[in-house]
Amino acid sequence: MKFDTLVLLATACLKLADCHRLHLNEYNENELIYDSMDSNDRVPTNLKEIWGDYWPFQGINTFAHLEHHECLIDNEKTFDVALIGVPFDTATSYRPGARFGPRSIRAASQRQTSLRGYNQRANFNPYTSWAQVVDCGDIPVTPMDNSLAFTQMTKGFEELLSNRKSTNNSKVPPRFVALGGDHSVLLPHLRALHKIYGKLNIIHFDAHLDTWAPDKYPSYWHTNQSEVNHGSMLWKAHHEGLTSHHNIHLGLRSKLSSIADYEDDDSQHFERIEADDIWIKGPQYVVDKILNTIPKDTPTYISVDVDVLDPGFTSGTGTQEPGGWLPRELLYILRQIEDLSIVGGDVVEVAPAYDIAEITATNGAQVAYELITSMVKKGPLDPSLVIGTEEQVELVSIKSKSEATKPSNLDKLEKELQDKIKELDKLKDQLNSELQQLKNMQSVFKLQ
Questions:
Q1: Are residues 250 and 310 in the same domain?
Q2: Which of 144, 245, 346, 351 could form a disulfide linkage to 97, CB 3.0–4.6 angstroms apart?
Q3: How far is the C-alpha of 343 from the C-alpha of 300, rounded, in Å?
Q4: Cα(235)–Cα(255) distance, rounded to whole angstroms?
Q5: Residue 22 falls inside a structural domain
Q6: Which of 30, 51, 72 is the last residue of a domain?
Q7: Cβ neighbour number for residue 100 with a 10 Å cutoff
Q8: Is residue 398 domain-resident?
Q9: What's the CATH code of the domain at 245?
Q10: How far is 296 from 389, CA to CA, in rounded Å?
Q11: Pair 312, 433 in one domain
């Protein structure tokens, strides 16, 4: 064998041995440490830097990997915007299961992080701006007793809004995006917000009116608590004086009892956008209708029932209605109304037991992200929105110079007005009943 050939074979063997050593990872300790460094030979400074980076599918499920804080327990923590789960679904009229909604929305939000939180539609990253955004966990809610459950939810929201401060301004409470739960969880949230901001404008994305009076769910059995379900909570909010005269439904397409349902809805001061309007009249028509209905600098609540979307995108919900919106249409509309003064919001009716491939939960997580984006991009709320500030008291005083300008007396007058409204509603029901009896008698006489 020639010498040159021997040299080539020897060189090849050395290279093969080196490759073999690489495959077997036969490094000494110094080599291992050196090899773990990046190209700049950067030395890790602490354990968090070494072990604190998770891939989206790793770690405990908080919304978008945000800091988790038990906000109901620790009242010293300050933050500006938070997610709060409300795992309650025993006020549904059809398919239950939304009690697992908060958990599934959080799981579906895992591809959101502060590193990848830039919202290209809004040209903004809500997780790296001025606001401290956290996940507050859940409000503990019993599934055994609806009366107790609504007490827990109402007290929970009152605790979060009345006894917590934002980092930016101690006069303004933090804002919450509630993860439902069925749609009735909106009512406790509105009750607590009303104590802070007064009457609220409602932007209601839903296939259903949810302004149905309790008698639209006829039954021999009745309690006061049975009046509240996921289709009557807006009716209840109106009769408790929580809502303003500037409200709007979007995406409606449900079946009705009769045209009287719309008449009842009118009396509760709601405008209506039908599901077909967005493709017949166009998205700009929808945007203009919202902005012409909702005064810009007044406290506004956005509620998104995922069944506003077509069942093809929300199989995991309790009351599907064919012919709904596309996700891109909903997200587009949400982005166009970001300049409104949003004091709270929710994403509700995600029922993962009926979901396919996390599609419903992923859409729900995206909606929550858009609501957070709007809250943060708009900037801190104007303190004058809060009842009791000098600005609010001055505005009230302009209307009247009497003692009724004091907030406590205003509350008393408002309660008296609500009582009168309830009396009138009862009288209306009695008159309708008597009218029906007369019609029945008339029918009998005609038969004779």
A1: yes
A2: 351
A3: 6
A4: 18
A5: yes
A6: 51
A7: 19
A8: no
A9: 3.40.800.10
A10: 19
A11: no
Cα distance between residue 38 and residue 411, in whole Å: 65
Tell me the two tokens of residue 31.
């080599």
Does residue 315 sit in the same domain as residue 351?
A: yes
Question: For each of the chain's 448 residues, which pLDDT tens digit applies?
Answer: 555 665 555 555 555 555 444 444 544 544 444 455 555 556 667 888 888 888 889 989 999 999 999 999 998 999 999 999 999 999 999 999 999 999 999 999 999 999 889 999 999 999 999 999 999 999 999 999 999 999 999 999 999 999 999 998 889 999 999 999 999 999 999 999 999 999 999 999 999 999 999 888 888 888 888 889 898 999 999 999 999 999 999 999 999 999 999 999 999 999 999 999 999 999 999 999 999 999 999 999 999 999 999 999 999 999 999 999 999 999 999 999 999 999 999 999 999 999 999 999 999 999 999 999 999 999 999 999 999 654 443 333 333 333 333 444 555 666 667 677 767 766 766 776 676 677 666 665 555 5
CB 225 within 8 A of CB 145: no
User: Do 257 and 349 lie in a common domain?
Assistant: yes
Separation between Cα atoms, residue 57 and residue 59, nearest integer Å: 7
**Same domain, yes or no, for 312 and 442?**
no
Sign for the CA dihedral angle at 18, 21, 25, 30 comes to negative
The answer to the question of residue 332 being in a domain is yes
Domain assignment present for 97: yes
Stated pTM of the model:
0.79
Find out whether 239 and 425 touch, Cβ atoms under 8 Å: yes
Residues 407-433 as b or e (16 or more Cβ within 10 Å = b): eeeeeeeeeeeeeeeeeeeeeeeeeee
Q: Do 9 and 99 have their domain in common?
A: no
Show Cβ contacts of residue 444 under 8 Å, excluding neighbours closer than 6 positions: none
Q: Coil, strand, or helix at residue 197?
A: helix
CA 53 to chain centroid, in Å, comes to 28
DSSP 8-state secondary structure symbol assigned to residue 124 = B
With a CB cutoff of 8 Å and minimum separation 6, the contacts of 191 are 154, 157, 158, 240, 242
Residue 143 in contact with residue 99, Cβ under 8 Å? yes
* 319 backbone dihedrals φ, ψ, rounded to 5°: -135, 85
Residues 314, 234 share a domain: yes
Do 146 and 253 lie in one domain? The reply is: yes
Domain count, the chain: 3
Give the domain extent around 8.
3-51
Separation of alpha carbons 80 and 164, rounded Å: 10
